[in-house]
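_Backbone structure tokens_
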Amino acid sequence: MSEKETRKIISSKQAGLAAALGGLAFAWRALGLNIPWVPPFVVDLGHTLVVLGSFAGGPYVTLIISILIGIPSWDTWIDMLGYFITGLGICFLAKTIWKYRRSKFSHVLIWFYSVTAAYLVAPAYWLFMFDNFLHMIPFRATLFYVWSPLGDALPYTLLRGIPLSLALVYAPNYMQPRWRWRGGEEVVEKFTEEKGKKWDKKDTLGLVLYLLEILAAVTLIIFHP
């Protein structure tokens, strides 16, 4: 495989992803389109759009989509930061998931991310903000409700895991994570397979970084008064 690297911070593919998914997320939030759940919870597609965009486009796309989601939100900066944090989590795992996409291990990683993001990272962040900055709801009592069958952790797990799993199967060229952490993309001449590639230091680093994100959430849950 012959390949070269672009010097752009955002490639044309990444710009298209950010515009399409970010625009959809902006419109969805601005129009107040929510999926009713057990009151007081509602479910929206923001996390689905962030996961897909982050996986295929990388952290800069994550940032743009998060900003566009936050602009029409009533808790603007809280949503911007929260969506970026949860989207960054799938960026840490994306290239490993892609490498092993022909095996069951990729789906193990997808659902590991989906469950931990929905049950730990996202609720720890948003409930902390709602309790300590907005003084709206009690952290721990609401967390237990979020975790319950009536809470929104389960639907958000499914809204992350199912679309990403299907996208990797049915739209692999679209989802291929060619992005680089320092910006831009690797330009690959044609769609290539990753057969024979083994676990390496980059896979370990990505997993460790996401585990640190989980550890921060667990620490906040345990020690929050």
